[in-house]
Each structure stands twice: as C-alpha cells, then as structure tokens.
Amino acid sequence: MPRATDTAYETLRRMILSGEAAAGSRLGEAELAETLGLSRTPVREALQRLGADGLVEVLPHRGARVVQWTGADLEEIFELRSLLEPYAAARAARLRPDEPVLAELRGMCAAMERAVADGDLARVAQLNARFHAAVIDASGNRRLPGMLTSVMHAPLIVGTFRRYGADAMARSMNHHRELVAAIAAGDPAWAESVMRAHIRAAAAGLGADQGNQTDEET
Amino acid sequence: MPRATDTAYETLRRMILSGEAAAGSRLGEAELAETLGLSRTPVREALQRLGADGLVEVLPHRGARVVQWTGADLEEIFELRSLLEPYAAARAARLRPDEPVLAELRGMCAAMERAVADGDLARVAQLNARFHAAVIDASGNRRLPGMLTSVMHAPLIVGTFRRYGADAMARSMNHHRELVAAIAAGDPAWAESVMRAHIRAAAAGLGADQGNQTDEET
DNA sequence: GGAGGGAAGATTGCATACAACAGTCCTGGA
DNA sequence: TCCAGGACTGTTGTATGCAATCTTCCCTCC
Q1: Domains, chain B, ordered by start
Q2: Candidates A45, A68, A147, A151, partner chain B, best to mutate (most B CBs within 10 A)
Q3: Nucleotides in C strand less than 7 A from protein CB
Q4: Which of A73, A126, B98, B115 has the fewest CB atoms within 10 Å, i.e. is most exposed?
C-alpha cells in the first residue's frame, strides 16, 4: 500500500495536468483532504512537492494555487529546453544505449503514431512526455531529469499538440524517429541538431518565441 | 517573526553548507526538532525542501541523510553549469542591466578580492555564490535561479576555493571582473565566453572533468 | 459617497498523539 | 557454528486539535 502522501501527490498532479484543476484555481488543504479521504498532513506535503515541481505556487499563510502560464513563461521554458534537451540527446548518442532501450524508444514512436492516427491527443502528449523523459534518462546525467521536470510539465498543461496542424504533427513524429536513428548511430552532433530542431519547432508552434500572452484572470 | 519552517530550513541549510552536518550523516526528525526547539512538523517540512534542493536525500520510512558528492556528481554538475550559466551571462549582457545592478556586481568583486587578501575562504565562497546568483537573476529568466540552486550548492559544500592555488584564485577574480565588463558592454558573446571559461577553470581545479572520486563510507 | 478601521470567519501553521513500518537483536533449530 | 524466525525498539507516516494569520465584510467617520 503506497503512502498517503504519494497518492495525494499523484492524484493532484493528474488533476492539474488533465486540466480538471483549472489554472489559477485555489487548492484548499481541508477541501482536498476531504475529497481524497485523507487528513491535511499528507495533502499539505503533496502540495509542497507540487510547488517544488513548479505545478502550483504556495504562498505563506495564503495556500496553494495552480500556476498560470504566460507567454513569457513559455518562452523561458522553451529556451531552457532547447538548451538542455539537445545536450541530453548528444550525451545519449555518445553513450550508445543498448538495444532494449532503443527498442523501447522505437516502441513509443510507433505508439505515438498510432495515437495520432486515432486522434487521441491526450495520449500523444503523454507518450511524448515519456519519450523525452526516456531520452533524458539515456543521457546518463542523473540531475537532468529533476531539473527538467518543472519545464516538462508546461507543454502538457498548455496542450501543445492541440495547436498542431497535420503537417506540424507529422514533422514532430519524424523528428522522434530521426532522433532515435541518430542515437542508435552514436552521432552526438546529429542527435543534438535533431532535438534542437524538434524543440524550436514546438516553440514556434506555440508562438512561444513571439511573446504571445495566453494568461487570463481568475 | 518568521515561520518555524523557514528557520528550520535556513538553519539546516547553513549546517550542511558549513560542514557542521557532515556528508552522509543522518538527520533524525525528533533529534533536530529538539535541537532547534521546534516540533517535528516544521522540521519535516524543511527536510523535504532540502530534499527538493538536492542537499539531502529522503528515503521513505528511512529518514533523511546529507547527500554525498562523488566525482561523477561533480562532473555532472559542472557540465550543467557550463551549459546554463554562460547562457545566463549572455542574456544578462543582452538585457544590459542598469547601473545600480552593475555597481552591486562590482562591489561584490571588490569584496571578494578583499576576502581573498584576508584569506577568508568561507567569505569568498559565500560572495562567489551571491555573485553568480546575481548574474543569473540579471538574465531575466525567472526559472533559472530555481533550476540552478541544486547545482550551485555543490561547490559550496565541496569547498572549491580551498583547493585553489594563488594563480587559480587570481584568475577566478579576473574572470569576475571581465564578466562584469562584458555585461556592461552589452556583448553577449563575450560574456558567454568568459563565463564558460570561468566554469571550466573551476571544474579543472576540482578535477571534476577527470572523474575523481571523493566519496567515502558513513 | 468613499476611505479607513475593526471584528468575524475561514484558512494555514504548528504541536502532539497514535499508527505503521524498518532495522536490530535475540532465540531456537539444524 | 550458522541460518532462520520473530519480537522489540526506534523512527517515520498520519491524524487531529489549537494557535496565528489572512481575508472579507460591515460599520463608522470624513
């Protein structure tokens, strides 16, 4: 049986990422505790973890709110991603992961392409997050995953793929395939370039490089 | 009056960074609570925050321990720093901070040089951390400070400057001065290059690029 | 009519008590 | 002598109650 804190954390995380807990909405400890059937203590702990992840902001004596992403936030996030993820891809290529890892990456590519064909964008987003996480793990740098969690959440919330056209979506899937090929070939420069193109394309698709405002009032 | 959680967090952070709490040592909640004159609740919360910062590792049902840095850890950390901090320096130069900010940076340079002359290495380390934090803040990216906290702690703990010779120390001080000049001149490429050199020099001084092991058993 | 002050309500912060789990030590058996 | 099993002890995890703080609304005064 998992710890109550973990269940609270996972549940809240899902609620936020799925949009069930709207951006900017208040997260009262007592209310959540009652909803989840727990006491305030593990809920409080989960909220702090979510705060460290950058999914909620907790203010002293004022409770927690789901974060709101502005255009400036997205711009910052994609700049950091286009800095760190190409590095991770290059490292992964240099490390030459063994065949089971590569097979898993290819499997995720295939699953994503099926989800695209089915029009299941939520599943695409989820698989995409797992794919990128796998590449980051394959980099061998054990600090990168933790560093990137905060910036990896944003696209999930904003709903990147919802804004993609058919061509952008196809390009994104091709990037994934090419990235796996570059890593399998052990070519760091290739992997790095593909990943950078992949991130920049995503940023362009969101208009994150133009400083668009997507925030709204509570 | 500050919150008990904050005092616990700050106190524990100082204890870890100063070495008073040795690397690998256990941090029992009850014991700390008694020492600090608080209850377990805020101590527990502080430990989780320190865990998110990467200063301690908390294992379920097994409590918290002060992290131990291996040579591989240092290598990872300096790679990430040499990726992110040059970017921050370039952004700061592009933003052209106003004169008060530049004056503060110059003031910290001067204070550091005085501390070096006095042989007060602890003060040098503290000022150095504040200097780098100021440059990162000047980058304008509000996510960078949080991302870098975990990797900025390591050099403080390991005691970077303790291993510096006179020439390496002088070079480091010159880097700081040159970095301020590059930012003041609004030259991103210059600022980025100086910062990269600065970080690589630090890594070389620690042997972080050679995979040395500095860990030990409890 | 608008601004300032204060009281009431609600919410977070902290302390304490109890429950559950992990590690250790002892005992019994092979 | 060594291994296995189980109780014991100490620690963390969770629940609950109280104190402190913030927010809101209303009343008073300008």
Answers
A1: 4-66 (1.10.10.10), 71-206 (1.20.120.530)
A2: A147
A3: 11-17, 21-23
A4: B98
Stretch (H or E) spanning A110: helix A99-118
Task: With beta carbons under 8 A apart, name residues in chain B contacting A60.
Answer: 3
* Sign of the dihedral through C-alpha B131, B133, B136, B142: negative
Q: Over chain B (218 residues), what is each successive 10-residue block's mean pLDDT?
A: 91 94 96 97 98 96 94 93 97 97 97 95 93 97 93 82 89 97 98 97 77 39
Q: Which residues of A touch B80 (CB under 8 A)?
A: 84, 141, 143-144, 147
